[in-house]
Specification:
single chain; alpha/beta; Rossmann fold; Arc Repressor Mutant, subunit A; 2 domains; six-stranded parallel β-sheet
């Protein structure tokens, strides 16, 4: 018998969530529903408690949304696969989920067999995009891959996206330890990022790095982060 796939269902609509769980449990398959969550924060707690193989993740939810929840899940539990299941097909949602680590994106109007096959696919390490979205996603990623890296390299002296993120936090006054906690990485890793930042932008201390961040528009003069840098 095939090994069971442990699935956590995350959706803020209790009726839909209940129906989805009932459907998954009723199928003669190897899917084992290990929990239900009504928002991103609850999903994080349940991922830690139940360690599912796949998280079926809604996007628009009160409190922590599906994109932020997925970002944190993938940082803390990189082996857990996330399959977005949403009623919305906008590029912002689709690309937002894929960029933070989701393995696929399905629409709620999909047939139950499509949802089941999507769960199996991402569990096996494959991507799965709803057919109606696939062409748009491939086109958008082709454009992003050719422009985002060049734009950041040109604007920020070769800083990587993560180094830009660290620099923005550093410029708002957070310590290396606070940055490490926020990004779910080790303090030693932050130290290495800071040293690389200093080398690339040719500065020797935090004050000079902050001035650089302000000059480049990564933070405002009152210390608030801006929309510059990674998208």
């Amino acid at each position: 018998m095939a090994q069971s796939i442990r699935v956590l269902v995350v959706d803020d609509h209790p009726v839909y969530r209940g129906g989805l769980v009932t459907m998954l449990k009723a199928q003669p398959s190897n899917i084992d529903v290990v929990g239900e969550a009504e928002d991103g924060a609850a999903a994080l707690r349940l991922v830690e408690e139940t360690r599912p193989d796949v998280v079926l993740m809604d996007i628009k939810m009160a409190g922590m949304d599906g994109i932020e929840a997925t970002r944190q899940i993938k940082q803390r539990f990189p082996d857990v696969k996330v399959l977005a299941l949403s009623a919305y097909d906008s590029d912002d949602f689709v690309l937002g989920m894929l960029k933070v680590g989701a393995s696929g994106y399905m629409l709620k109007d999909a047939d139950q067999t499509v949802i089941m096959s999507g769960i199996a696919a991402v569990h096996e390490g494959n991507g799965r995009i709803h057919p109606r979205l696939a062409a748009r996603v491939f086109e958008a990623f082709a454009e992003l891959s050719g422009t985002t890296e060049r734009r950041n390299a040109d604007l920020y002296d070769g800083l990587t996206d993560r180094e830009i993120e660290v620099l923005r936090l550093l410029a708002t006054g957070e310590t290396n330890r606070q940055i490490a906690n926020r990004l779910w990485i080790s303090e030693r890793t932050v130290d290495n990022h800071v040293l690389n930042i200093y080398r690339k932008i040719n500065v020797s201390d935090r004050a000079q790095a902050i001035l650089y961040a302000v000059r480049k528009g990564l933070v405002s003069t009152d210390g608030a982060t801006t929309a510059g840098g990674t998208q």
